[in-house]
């Protein structure tokens, strides 16, 4: 897998453009990966609702929870589903709306300088090995596009928005991710 250096879209993944993005501030260097998790409805997998949320097409009549989130335009750059399939919603050169009010190392507004990666899952459940494998490949492809990325610049949503967010949660295995990244020389 690689990211097209001209367009910022990954090759060999599902492309589902979201309208929920804008331009990054001029001169901004992308140097942070933010790991999230999401399931719609909560704690249920499949159904395509995440893709619909990121496309502003969430059918509120399908579940009572959807009415509470449908009016919030959100997106991530990537989603890795339970089978390890990667979908991309926003070019890596643009600012996806995934982090909200956030800060990393005293630098505010993480959306400006980060890539948002959603894993289909929830904070009360483990993630599948296929998701870790896909995340490894995606991290390597992103490093090819943004060489300053390293393991110290991969964080969870809970770390950049403490008290407001708790994902990817206690079942996300950071050590497994770091081991997979070390296997391919991602430092």
What string, H for helix and E for strand, traces the elements in order?
EEEHEEEEEEHEHH
Overall average pLDDT: 96
Helix count, per DSSP?
A: 4
Question: Could you estimate the helical fraction of the residues in percent?
Answer: 10-25%
The total tally of domains equals 1
Number of β-strand runs: 10
Q: Can you name the CATH architecture?
A: 3-Layer(aba) Sandwich
Quote the CATH topology: Lysozyme-like
Would you identify the regions where 5 or more consecutive residues have pLDDT less than 50? none
What fraction of the residues are assigned to beta strands by DSSP? 15-25%
Q: Using only CA atoms, what is the Rg?
A: 15 Å
Largest sheet: 6 strands, mixed
Structure description:
The protein has helices spanning 49-54, 129-145, 157-160, 174-183; strands spanning 14-15, 21-23, 32-38, 78-80, 86-88, 94-96, 103-104, 107-108, 114-120, 154-156. With 187 residues, the chain is of the alpha/beta class. It has one domain (14-183): Peptidoglycan recognition protein-like (Lysozyme-like). It has a six-stranded mixed β-sheet. Helix 2 (129-145) crosses helix 4.
